[in-house]
DNA sequence: TGTTGACTCTGACGTTGCGTAATAGTTTAG
DNA sequence: CTAAACTATTACGCAACGTCAGAGTCAACA
């Protein structure tokens, strides 16, 4: 059992922050002494590790709490996402360094601000949150799935996989073909019915995520064959382009 | 001349932020129309670039303003420091990635929080601020140097360089020797007299900065020969160790 | 046993860097 | 000439703590 002071020294988190985390229900101590002193055990420290990783990624504390308390939370999966996000951030810093070096050497006043662009990171972060508990979509999904049996769960996921397998069959054709577009429509309807309301915007976001080169891409390609994820992405882009404009 | 909207689109900075920057005097538009609309020119954009670089490094906006408005501000030097800080941050992210990978693979509950440690970055940041305008030390220095002539300036800097050259002469001896310790005392007195009050703590911070491997190290070594900066660092450490405990 | 010094608690208020209306004037395209 | 798109200025809100203030606790030493 460690006191706040000890935890603070070990982790670098201020005492005030620990008290605050306790207050907002993000990290409670294992127990309290009669005098009200906080005492932390190893489990609490482990949780703190998780919290700090998310904090490095600038997740709001509220989201962090929802995420690690979600019944769907899977630490390994979360770690994988965290690694991917950290890698994206690293790349961002590398871009900035390159940018700064460029100015320093040439002194060029190039009105280029692309190095400051964080869209990709933000999008990926958004999608990560959708997977866990910190989005309205997820909350809707949580409700819908409340009274699912193990069987219906499996049935739904099998159908889901089947959809991607179908995409895989036509992945070498034109993404704007009627069949492909119909499949996109099916996908949107399926998600809306079984998971959460899948607006065109949400669908567009999903498409990007599918092709982002992470775990999603791998999974989808494993169901439909290499290149399927990218094909789905393109088909969705075409679909949303038609719908939205 | 660009409107807020255009600047926002180009740079990714929100309109609200631009208005805010104007309000706090961090970034004013080149001019305003009769109706009060903000119009930015290229100079403003250039300044915005600087601001964004500092913002990426999490400098408070107030500090950023003081820094880029300091009469001592040198853009090239600032860029160099920014690059070094960005590199440090990148390394920090790499540590975190390594850490996360370690947990993921082994599942080990290692109560190791060193990857979250930002002390080095913070120290370097502090020192960077001391060089520019955002520290009490610097403000004191600014006052003292107000009525310096070019000659007295040169004299002071020559003496300063001489101090390091002296360190260089004994850099292969023991840092805790009386001579070395005396030199440290001289250095502290010199800084206090000519720049700003150099407490033991400040001195200790300087020592670290000297040996951090950046521009300072290079300069010092160029005056006293390779290894001088590290020697000074060690001598200061010994000196402060004695004084402070 | 008393006292000192280091720790800790709980409020309560302050701060930074904007987001988010609310309300109102401005400019531009058709 | 009107609607759509922009912009301005208050003003309030929020996250994640920092920073007192006032008060209780604990370990150790005298």
Strands, helices and their partners?
2 copies of one chain form a homodimer.
Chain A: H1 4-11, H2 15-23, E1 31-32, E2 38-39, H3 42-56, H4 61-69, H5 75-106, H6 119-131, H7 136-144, H8 150-169, H9 178-194, H10 200-210, H11 215-224, H12 228-244
Antiparallel strand pairs in A: 1-2
Helix pairs in contact in A: 3-4, 5-6, 8-9, 8-11, 8-12, 9-12, 10-12
Chain A binds a DNA duplex (30 and 30 nucleotides) through helix 2.
Feature tags:
homodimer; two-stranded antiparallel sheet; DNA-binding
How would you sum up this structure, described in words?
2 copies of one chain form a homodimer. Chain A has helices at residues 4-11, 15-23, 42-56, 61-69, 75-106, 119-131, 136-144, 150-169, 178-194, 200-210, 215-224, 228-244; strands spanning 31-32, 38-39. With 245 residues, chain A is an all-alpha fold. In chain A, strand 1 and strand 2 (38-39) form a beta hairpin. The model of chain A has no long low-confidence stretch (mean pLDDT 86). At the A-B interface, helix 3 and helix 5 of A face helix 3 and helix 5 of B. Chain A binds a DNA duplex (30 and 30 nucleotides) through helix 2.
Strand content of chain A: under 5%
Number of E-type strands of chain A: 2
Summarize the biggest pleated sheet of chain A.
Answer: 2 strands, antiparallel
Q: Please state how the strands of the largest beta sheet of chain A are arranged side by side.
A: 1-2
Major interchain interface with per-chain residue totals = A-B, 34 and 34 residues
Shape of chain A: flat
SSE string of chain A: HHEEHHHHHHHHHH
